Prior knowledge:
alpha+beta
Amino acid sequence: GASIRDVLQMQSGVTFDEDYLDYDSDINRMGRALALGRSMDRFAADLEARDRDPGEQWQYVSIDTHVIGMVIRGATGRSIPDLLSERVIAPLGLEREPYYITDGEGVAFVLGGLNLTTRDYARLGLMFLQGGVYGGTRIVPDGWVDASTTPSANTEPGRIGYGYQWWIPVGAEPGQFMARGIYGQYVYVDQVNGVVIAANAADRQFREPGVNEENIRIFRLIAESL
C-alpha cells in the first residue's frame, strides 16, 4: 500500500525498530541476517506489520532504502552496482574503485555498504552541489536534485527535515542539506556558500543527545568561513 514516494521519504509505515543498542531490534536482526549470508530481499519482504498508514508520518527506517533498491532492480532488470557504476560512478571519475557489501545471494545491500573513500564521497556531494552536474556532464536531473533535497516528509515541526533520502538541518536555507550515516558519517552540502564537507568517522556516541546538532554547527561554521 505504500507508494515509492512514501518509501523514499521514510513514510512506509512499516514496523521497524532502529535501535542499534538493542540486540533484538530489527536493525540488529537484519545485521545478523546479512552476516549469516541470508537474503536481504526476503528479510524486507517478511516485514508486514505496520505502525501507521503509509504517508502518514515520518519514521526513519533503514530497510525502506533497500526496498527502493528492490524496486529499481525490478523495474530495470539490472543490479544496483551495475546501474550505479554506469550512471554515477563512471561519470564521477572516482579516485579509488568502490565496492558494495552483498548478501548471501550476491545482492547489494542498498541501505548501506557502499564503500568509497572520503574524497570520493565528497565528489558525490559536489555533483549535488552543482545541481546534478560534475565535470560538465549532467549525471542527475536538475529537478530531482531540487525535489529530493527539499524537506517534504511529515517530520515533527521544529525538528530536522527529510526529503527523498536526504536530511535537511533545522534552520537550513534552500540548498543546504546532507547525507548522514551511523557512527558520524556525513556528506554536508551547502549550495548557498558553495561548500561540500565529507566526513568518515567511528563515533560510537553518535546517537547521544546533541552530537548531531554540534556536528552540523561545526559544518556551518566551516562553510560560512570559506
